Records
---
Amino acid sequence: MTEAIQKSIYDFSARSIDGHEVALAQYAGQVLVIVNTASKCGFTPQYAALETLYRQYRDRGMSVLGFPCNQFGAQEPGNEAEITQFCESNYGVSFPIFAKIDVNGPNAHPLYKYLKSEQSGLFGVIGLEGIKWNFTKFLIDRAGKAVGRYAPATSPSELVPEIEKLLSA
């Protein structure tokens, strides 16, 4: 039996940082920024900018979804409780954080397999769709489609013009 074709991120679920299965369909109609995170990375201070985005736009229908990942330089070694404590105490993170996942390789979370297939990597070249590092960001429209992919070095604030467009659409 072949795997069903996924049409949007709403066809997926993921385990929350506190262990509950979350259907991403609960975010239907929202603009989303989905990002793979790590606590011991040079880009970790982006948590603050992601939280700023979340607080600025959540009342207009936007959310940030964080997915901790330890695949890049073992920069997310903590367990879920340690990750939660780090995010809250160091950056005041209130946006949803999910359980640690793989974003590449045979054990990559199905959501990330989908996101990479929808928004390939460097210059859109086939085969370069793998996530290259922590804090790669995907922008999702209200229909659950990936409409943008941003490099780790791209500041979350640089997504504001696109977020504004999607919220106004």
Note: The two ends are 38 Å apart (CA to CA).
---
Amino acid sequence: MKFSEQEKEVIVKKIQGYFRDELDQTIGGFDAIFLLDFFAEEIGPYFYNRGLYDAAAVLDDKMETITDAILEIEKPTELHR
């Protein structure tokens, strides 16, 4: 998982803020980047895959709606499905 430099800056600040606010600890920029890299490499694929599964579910729902709409406008013929 790759982040732009701007994204990394924002995420690093959030990591540092979390450590400061929730754990009463200070974490330097280098350590925050190291932690970000660890999570991106080791944990990121789980979030990424979950996003894919969620997107596939949305597409499945939309395709079902489209299929239903097509069947509604289908003209009758002598052939039956």
Note: The chain has a mean pLDDT of 94.
---
Amino acid sequence: MRVCVALAFGSLVAACAAPEAAGYRDTSRPLTYTSRSDVSRLAGAWHLRGHYPGDERLMRVAYLRDRQGHEAFELVVRACAANGDCEGAGEVWPAEPLGPNRWRLTDPKGGAARDLWVIWVDEGYRTAAIGAPDGGYGWVLDRSVKGGADRITAAREVLDFNGYDIGAMILR
């Protein structure tokens, strides 16, 4: 498989790959990432507003950076006890920067690494389209659990433009 990756954050940049059978994205189409580069504005909670099958338990995502500059993402999933009580349980996935708005996340349980690309974020850093070149997942994240329909639509349109199967996306 041939993979080409451009490393500029200041403008929309594309990555190209040969088609693969798995995932929710046509990998023969270029994958872009956003030119908005204020990583500090990514910090804080982002609520999952759109996802693909397999991420039903995911509730929130948060970008973290410690004082030493180490980066990570906390993935908060809905965890339910046998008695039916449910709450959010977070796992911190260390993140290796691959370039602006792109990271390789390490599963704290030893599973496969996951690339995370910020494909699009609105000017106010309220809504974001997140995904990976292999199309194994795609998310629409928002600062709020409701509202912002125009931004949610825009995020989905950007995912569609980047080859994602919007018909398979589950909205919240």
Note: The two ends are 35 Å apart (CA to CA).
